[in-house]
Amino acid sequence: MSTIPAFRLNQASITGLSKKWLLALGRGLVALIVGALALMVPAATALFLVTAYFLLDGLLAIAFGAEIRSSRWIRATFLLEGIAGIVASIFVLTSGTNRTDLILIVAVWAVLTGLLEIAAATALPNASWLVATLGFVSLGFGAVLFAWPMIALLTFLYLMTSYAVIAAVVFLLAALVLRRVLVEGNHEHR
Question: What is the DSSP letter of 7?
Answer without folding.
Answer: G
